[in-house]
Design goal:
Length: 542
C-alpha cells in the first residue's frame, strides 16, 4: 500500500555552512525521546551528548528516568551507547524512581564524572546533585553518593577553567548559584556564589569560555514557551551582562541546552517536540551551528528541521547517511554512482512535497513502496535492505492535517495526535489502510479521545473526510468529529449494525466563519465495547 507521511519543512538559510548532506538532521535521536543535552568533546576526539530521557506515552516530568549517552565523530552518524544510569541504581533516591532531570558530565585526571539531579524524598526541598564515576565516557558508571552542602536546586553544570579549577553551577526557581569544587570533583570548596546579571533566568544555566570571556546560556521565563538567553562576564562568578535571546522558542514549553566547539565550529544543543508533535514531555535533542560577531556577541540561531532532499541511510535510526537524491529515476547503477548502496537502505528522510518510490528490482521493477514525507523506518514496512532502484518526484500538498494516516510513530506513540491518557489507542499495521498503518482503539466505554489542533483561515470553506472501520463483534460507535466546532456537518459515526470489517469513508463541508482553529478528534461512544479504526484524515480548503 502507499504511505503518505508528513514532516515540518526544513528551515535553512544561505549562510549556514552545514546542510543535510554533511550533518545529521534534527532531531538527532529518533528512536526515543531525549531532552536537556549536555555536549562535551573528550580527549579521544569524539563529541558526546549526555541528555535526560522522556517517557512514552507522556506521564509528566516526574517520570523521567534512565540516562543514555550519544556520540559522533562526524556530526552525521550518532551512536547510542545505551543506558548509563537509572534511578534504581541510586540508593539515596526516592523509592518511586523518576525525577532524573538534566545531567552534566566532566573529565579530570583519567576519570569521567557524571552529575545528575534527583530527589531523595517527596518534596521540592529534597533535590540533590548525585555523582557517578567511570574510566569510560559511555559505560561503567558507579554511583558515588551526592554532593553535600548544596541548595536544593537542579540542573548541574560543571565548568573547568584554563587553570584546572572546576566549578559547579546549579539553578532553578530563578536562583542561579555557583560553587568551587575540590580536586576530587565531589565536594564543594567554600561558600556559594549567587550569579548576578542573568535577566529573566528560569533554570538550567550552562557555562563555556571563549577568547577569555565567560559565557552563560540559560532558559528564560518567557511565557508559555521559554527562549534561550546568554550573558558574558570576565569572571566565572560574574557579574554577568545579559546580551539577550539567541535561541528562540521551540514547540514545547521548556528550553535547555549547551554549547561546545567541535572541529573549529561552535554548536548549540537544545531540544524541541518535533517527533511527538509538540508534546511538552516528549522532547527530542537537536543541534545547530552558532556564529560570533567580532565583539563576542552571538548571532540569532537558525533552527533547522529535517532535510532539503530525500536522504538515504544505512541504519534504521537515520544514521550512516549514504547521501541525498533529487528528482529523477535511479537504476541500481545510477544509485551506486550517487553513493547510495542498493539493498542496504534501512531508513529514508523525505522533505515536504517529495515522493519516493522504492522498487525491489532494478529498472523500477518488482514490488514497490511509495512514501511521502518524514522519517521512514523501512523495517516496519518490510522494505529494509531490499530497495534496488528508485523514483523521486514532487507533488502539491493540499491536506493540512499532520500525520493523517497515522504512519509516524515513536516508541509506540502516534505523532501529532495527543491526549494525556491515550490508553487503548495504538498504531495498527493494516494492509487495507491508505498507508501502512491505521489508528486502532481497543477498549470499553467512551475513550478520552486523541486530538489534533488545526489552524484555520477565517471565513473559508473546508472539506473534511475520514475513513472509519469497526469489527463485527463490537458494540457502540466509532466517532470522528471536530470536538463541537463544526459537528453539525462534520461529525461522523459508524457502528457495527451499519457495516463491519470494511473501511467507510465520510465527508463533510464547513465554513470556518470567525474560527481560527479547531480540534479534530478520534473518539468512541459511551456504550462502546470492542475494536475500531481511523485512517486517511484529510482537511483541505474548498
Amino acid at each position: 500500500m502507499k504511505a503518505k507521511i508528513f514532516l515540518v519543512v526544513l528551515l535553512l538559510v544561505s549562510f549556514i555552512k552545514i546542510d543535510a548532506q554533511n550533518r545529521r538532521s534534527n532531531p538527532i535521536v529518533s528512536h526515543m525521546y531525549t531532552a536537556d543535552p549536555s555536549a562535551h568533546v573528550w580527549e579521544d576526539g569524539r563529541l558526546y551528548v549526555y541528555p535526560s530521557s522522556d517517557v512514552a506515552p507522556p506521564k509528566g516530568y516526574k517520570t523521567m528516568d534512565g540516562y543514555h549517552v550519544f556520540s559522533t565523530v562526524d556530526m552525521i552518524t550518532w551512536k547510542d551507547h545505551g543506558e548509563i544510569l537509572h534511578s534504581s541504581q541510586v540508593p539515596w533516591g526516592r523509592k518511586e524512581g523518576g525525577f532524573m532531570w538534566a545531567p552534566d558530565a566532566a573529565y579530570k585526571n583519567g576519570t569521567y564524572y557524571y552529575y545528575f539531579p534527583h530527589r531523595s524524598g517527596q518534596g521540592r526541598d529534597t533535590w540533590k546533585i548525585g555523582v557517578a564515576t567511570s574510566k569510560n565516557p559511555t559505560s561503567g558508571f558507579k554511583e558515588q553518593g551526592y554532593i553535600k552542602g548544596l541548595k536544593s536546586l537542579i540542573d548541574p553544570c560543571v565548568f573547568t577553567d584554563d587553570d584546572g579549577q572546576s566549578y559547579l553551577f546549579i539553578g532553578g526557581e530563578g536562583d542561579p548559584t555557583g560553587y568551587k569544587l575540590k580536586e576530587n570533583m565531589m565536594e564543594i570548596d567554600g561558600e556559594p556564589h549567587s550569579i548576578k546579571g542573568l535577566e529573566g533566568f528560569r533554570e538550567g544555566l550552562w557555562m563555556f569560555k571563549r577568547k577569555g570571556k565567560y559565557y552563560i546560556i540559560y532558559p528564560d521565563d518567557f511565557p508559555k514557551r521559554n527562549k534561550m538567553r546568554y550573558a558574558i562576564s570576565d569572571n566565572p562568578y560574574g557579574p554577568f551582562e545579559c546580551k539577550g535571546v539567541f535561541v528562540d522558542s521551540t514547540d514545547v514549553i521548556t528550553m535547555h541546552g549547551s554549547v561546545v566547539e567541535y572541529k573549529d565550529q561552535w554548536y548549540v544543543f537544545y531540544h524541541n517536540g518535533n517527533l511527538s508533535g509538540g508534546i511538552a514531555t516528549n522532547r527530542s535533542i537537536c543541534f545547530d551551528p552558532i556564529y560570533f560577531n567580532e565583539d563576542g556577541t552571538i548571532n540569532m540561531v537558525k533552527q533547522t528541521l529535517g532535510v532539503q532532499l530525500p536522504t538515504f541511510h544505512k541504519e534504521i535510526n537515520f544514521n550512516e547517511m549514504f547521501g541525498t537524491l533529487d528528482i529523477g529515476e535511479y537504476t541500481k547503477e545510477e544509485m551506486k554512482k550517487q553513493g547510495i548502496e542498493t539493498c542496504d537502505i534501512s531508513s529514508i528522510e523525505i522533505p515536504k512535497g517529495y515522493r519516493v518510490e522504492g522498487f525491489a528490482k532494478d529498472n523500477l521493477k518488482g514490488k514497490s513502496w511509495e512514501f511521502e514525507e518524514d522519517r521512514i523506518d523501512l523495517n516496519t514496512v518490510g522494505a529494509n535492505n531490499i530497495i534496488t532502484s528508485l523514483k523521486i518526484s514532487k507533488y502539491q500538498v493540499e491536506n493540512i492535517v499532520e500525520n493523517p494516516s497515522f504512519e509516524l510513530i515513536t516508541q509506540g506513540q502516534v505523532k501529532n495526535w495527543y491526549n494525556r491518557n491515550s490508553k487503548g489507542f495504538s498504531p495498527f499495521k493494516d494492509k487495507t489502510a491508505k498507508g501502512y498503518f491505521a489508528l486502532q482503539y481497543q477498549g470499553k466505554g467512551k475513550s478520552k479521545g486523541l486530538l489534533q489542533k488545526i489552524a484555520l483561515k477565517p471565513n473559508t470553506n473546508y472539506e473534511l473526510s475520514v475513513k472509519l472501520k469497526i469489527t463485527s463483534e463490537t458494540k457502540g460507535k466509532v466517532v470522528f468529529d471536530t470536538n463541537g466546532s463544526f459537528d453539525e456537518t462534520c461529525k461522523f459515526e459508524l457502528e457495527a449494525t451499519n457495516k463491519t470489517d470494511e473501511w467507510v469513508q465520510y465527508k463533510g463541508i464547513f465554513n470556518s466563519e470567525e474560527n481560527k482553529n479547531l480540534q479534530l478528534r478520534c473518539i468512541t461512544s459511551s456504550d462502546f465495547n470492542g475494536v475500531c479504526f481511523w485512517d486517511d484524515v484529510v482537511l483541505k480548503m474548498k
